[in-house]
Amino acid sequence: MARVVALDVLDIRFPTSRELDGSDAMNPDPDYSAAYVTLRTDEGPDGYGLAFTIGRGNDVQAAAIRALAPHVVGRPVPEDAAALAALSSELIGDSQLRWLGPEKGVVHMAIGAVVNAAWDLASRRAGLPLWRFLAGMTPEEIVGLVDFRYLSDALTPDEALSILRKAEPTRAGRIAQLTADGFPAYTTSPGWLGYSDEKLARLAKQALAEGFDMIKLKVGGDLDDDVRRMKLAREVVGAGVRVAVDANQRWDTDVAIRWMRELAPYAPYWIEEPTSPDDVLAHRAIADALAPIKVATGEHVQNRVVFKQLLQAGAVDVVQIDACRVAGVNENIAILLLAAKFGVPVCPHAGGVGLCELVRHLSFFDYAAVSASLDGRVIEWVDHLHEHFTDPASVVGGRYLAPTQPGFSAQLREETLSQYVYPDGPVWTEVVA
Ligand SMILES: [Mg+2]
Q1: How far is the CA of 319 from the centre of ligand 1 (A)?
Q2: d(CA 52, CA 351)
Q3: pTM of this prediction?
Q4: In this structure, what DSSP letter does residue 168 have?
Q5: How far is the CA of 359 from the centre of ligand 1 (A)?
């Protein structure tokens, strides 16, 4: 029986702040970073996972991951749904570490990195990309992956089972469709707040030429700038293309409503993270005031319980899962099922290193086995840093291609690990000198 013999963690950082890639109203100078996990085994492939951070604090994130090692090292490699569910429960149930949350923040993200690495390992051993590995499970196995504690007032295991059973007879057709046609994408690349008007217009034009029918702009820095940039973007892309905006939590409720009313003449498709990701009632007030502009959030929603409340309150029109914010694949499946129950589309967040690579698997699985719909579904695409991965995400003609390599696509290339390791990699020492 194969066993996990070591859990290695590396602090990997990319100096993205030098070009203002990733800049927004709350995060002016991110250095996209990964607390990078390798689950080493005594037989067969290793497993890879990561927690995404934006620079300082990546060492803290790495320390939290190391604290989980005793749960994993020496364990038989989890290969099936039951073993992967047991690992997830054990990590979430560590009562001393749970005190630091519960189920939120650095420790929860660390659990996500380890759980995702275990899924990577299991799907590699099965010889399947993660989305196909998941889509090969029975409805009962999938329901067994989910922790329904704190959810059952909104979603019971029986309801989840009936959602999955309803989609099961037609799964194979959707898997074939995804394999042939991929999944719709939108691009955030034109819209970083630190970019000039000229760069915004050029990249928006380029996005249309590349086949995208939706782009996203960062907003929330300065109202006059936002009105000018939104007007410019609308002029460049025309009326038929969706332009979403993203405030990265910058506003109080009344400011969000006032600010968005100034942008409304240019028909924003959604307002993303208008305010604190913890504030369910504020999202509801903003959604009520701004309809038909949609309200989207999720990249900083800390766990399935807050997603549940956002959905129960009718506070979100778009659920934005993130592969590395919550406790990994298992909790994201809970969120996909909640969204399906409430009939709200899931449009994942992917602005960050590795997030496009990972989260595409979850959307492909969502369409294949859960929601069975592409209506209003679109995955964020940010065209940065993919070259560092052994199985990079790829978008052609405005659509994510189906992942085909075994695993969850989190593995970084060996050269990248040696170049970008912090603080001793050459990318960092050369700057200091
Ligand atoms: Mg965002």
Answers
A1: 12
A2: 10
A3: 0.98
A4: G
A5: 14
